[in-house]
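tRNA-splicing endonuclease subunit Sen15 domain-containing protein: structure, please.
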Amino acid sequence: MFQDTLDQLEKQTNPEQWPLVRHVYMDLTLAKMWENVQVYPVESLQTSILVGHEPDTPPEQQLVILPILQEKTVSMDRLSSYFKALRAAGFANQKGQALSKLTLAIIAPDSTIVYYHVQPGLVPPSSSNVNNNDDD
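Here you go.
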């Protein structure tokens, strides 16, 4: 059954990106025990994203996960392009609003995956944090 699911997902995924997508899918479903993880191709990014929610969280708290290699340079421009591409592809939160968070599944050469939540735009540090660091 699980292999059938993987075979179906492979058919809808860019062949160059399939190893990354498969690795993240297996981590989420087998190691982290997520259920109902969906994979959607995003042509403009030439990859697929995964959509699901963590166990014991409401279904409306879905995360959109983009698998990338650790070696890939991620800049503010690139992050902005990810959000724009996902918006253009019709991905939104449950209320139909633009995504406010994207989770990068950063895959290291040793197969370790680090999940990193990012939001569009820059958020400046609060003034209390800036003032507290002046003594360092």
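Notes: The two ends are 56 Å apart (CA to CA).
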